């Protein structure tokens, strides 16, 4: 899983450059691309996340901006590129969560990230009302998680109403970064549809707001919406001073990270399936079909006529990282050594079966992680491969739902941090019984953001052509014939275990109070005071 350095070939004096910024749940990446969309310089910073009490995952908007500004400043300094040659800036970021600001752009409290589950009670209340839930699904194209803006706003109205009263706009992650760069408050379709957008009309919906149980006056928080590739502002002098960019550099509206990664993976094409194993297991097929279903999100893309039907859960790197900590692995060297041990096991040797629900589950908040089938001869390598297989089985779970309504071409495109492991790529191919190709880019999200910016700046003819001409894929990895029976058995065992544990999970949830276990009530009470 080693990283590769940026392209270092010389550039002609007339070259123009494109900056892509990708703000994820755990890391901020800034990548400067030349006019051939090859990376010239890359910088990364940790994306700050605070967990003050159970279920809370938030961050300071100021600290996030410092991380972004530092990464961009490093890229500009190390690239040696004249900042006057940067044609445009594209930004992408993780979706959902809640970022409240004033009309002047000042943050109103910390940003709440999509990993936050404090609003699980509000989410359960909505889920218990089929009529309201149907409105949310049919109008907004998806069922909300506890980390969705609608549920988080309900939580704030109950626990911190003054914070909502002080806010003038509700934004998403990439929007607050663009706000610091340009002073402009708005969002794009790909992020707006995670909350109160009617995906049929591509406009904000008072009906969806009402279905969440929110007052109509909160329509005042919903910002203007632009297509992702619209130039909506220019770098302010104060932002130029801390980033090394030139004041006046165009900045586009930007897009949700799944959309940006799909572009950077060459997959934002109808009939293409892209999987990302990162902070979330993201499984999306690009389509023009408006079909909705509780098991996936029908998200508008860079324009309202294009969608990604995506089925997601936080069951990838959170589960992988938890397993590494459990096994005492604390650095990249130990991680790579353990992956090598797992890869050396006979491919069809039985390993423990893992349900990777340490952080999240699409089966409901009551579902928890499970490690079963453990024997005394199993080693750390067996446990790690079992954890990887569990993560892969979630790709199977998500794509099985999508496959009931959509069709896609092969090979399947795979990205994300786990895709750097040849073992993981082979496991995905074996489990899905399909060829899998990995995009030849360390930072697909930043590349996708840069492509959108390049089209807006007139450097590229279209997003579609850029995907064809620029995005490179590794040779497809095929499923092995010998693995067919093994994965059929593992898949069946996964389904049987989920079904068997369902009643136990529900009983455990019913034994808790409506507000959760006592320890969590105490944590929340501390915040509420």
Automatic annotation (TrEMBL):
A Pfam family hit: FGGY_N
Domain Carbohydrate kinase FGGY N-terminal: start-end pairs: 18-264
Domain (Carbohydrate kinase FGGY C-terminal): residue spans on this chain: 274-457
Keyword flag Transferase: yes
Keywords: Kinase, Transferase
Region (Disordered): 508-529
Biased composition (Basic and acidic residues): 518-529
Domain of life: Bacteria
InterPro entries: ATPase_NBD (IPR043129), Carb_kinase_FGGY (IPR000577), FGGY_C (IPR018485), FGGY_Carb_Kinase (IPR050406), FGGY_N (IPR018484)
Signal peptide region: none
Family membership: Belongs to the FGGY kinase family.
PANTHER family named among the record's database cross-references: L-XYLULOSE_3-KETO-L-GULONATE KINASE, SUGAR KINASE
Name of this chain's protein: L-xylulokinase
